[in-house]
Amino acid sequence: MTTTTPTSAAGPAGATGPTFRAPTASDGPAMWDLARASGLDENSPYAYVMWGEYHAGTSVVAVDDDGDLVGFVMGFRVPAAPETVFVWQVATSEACRGQGIAARLLDSLVERTGAEAVEATVTPGNDPSAALFRGLGKRHGKRVEETPLFAEDLFPGDHEAEVRFRIPVGTP
């Protein structure tokens, strides 16, 4: 069962951090802005509105005390393996980077969804994302499985291959 109760996470030196909650369609424009500012693969603004409407149960946003969106994780259940949540994108605002918000977003996603596993794809040159998902495995005491998934030739233009990260997060 997914909860929509906001939770707050302690930040550095015991300060309260952002509130974590499920996104809504009205969060879509801010999610799109943050994705673009973060240099993520660009999707249409409509995609973020749709994600807030139809994938709120498998996504989380971080909102600061002023109500501004400062981070998000977008996920969906894998149709052939509904106990697995695939993470599509993770972003935090530049001002909030280095505070562990992305890791807390993933932890909140796992808690909210009750997922047994989290999957994501990461390009070989994206060391910060690889570290984020390896950290999730470490926090759960699990080995992260990294396997090639999509070759470069599947993508138009200049796009690296994608490696699947699979992190078992449930209790066996």
Descriptive labels:
single chain; 172 residues; alpha+beta; Aminopeptidase; eight-stranded mixed β-sheet; 4 helices; disordered N terminus
Give the overall pLDDT as a whole number: 90
Biggest β-sheet strands, sense, barrel: 8 strands, mixed
Low-confidence stretches: 1-15
* Counted beta strands: 8
Can you list the strand order of the major beta sheet? 1-2-3-4-5-6-8-7
Separation, N- and C-terminal Cα atoms: 19 Å
| Percent of residues in helices | 25-40%
CATH architecture: 3-Layer(aba) Sandwich
Q: Tell me what portion of residues adopts beta-strand conformation.
A: 25-35%
Number of domains: 1
Assign the CATH class.
Answer: Alpha Beta
SSE ordering: EEHHEEEHEHEE
Spell out the CATH superfamily: Gcn5-related N-acetyltransferase (GNAT)
> Total helix count?
4
Tertiary shape:
globular
Task: Characterise this structure.
27% of the residues lie in helices and 32% in strands. The longest helix is centred in the middle third of the chain and has 13 residues. It is of the alpha+beta class and 172 residues long. The protein contains four helices and eight strands; from the N terminus they run E-E-H-H-E-E-E-H-E-H-E-E. The protein has a single domain, classed as 3-Layer(aba) Sandwich (Aminopeptidase). GO terms for molecular function: diaminobutyrate acetyltransferase activity. Its EC number is 2.3.1.178. InterPro entries: Acyl_CoA_acyltransferase, Ectoine_EctA, GNAT_dom. Keywords: Acyltransferase, Transferase.
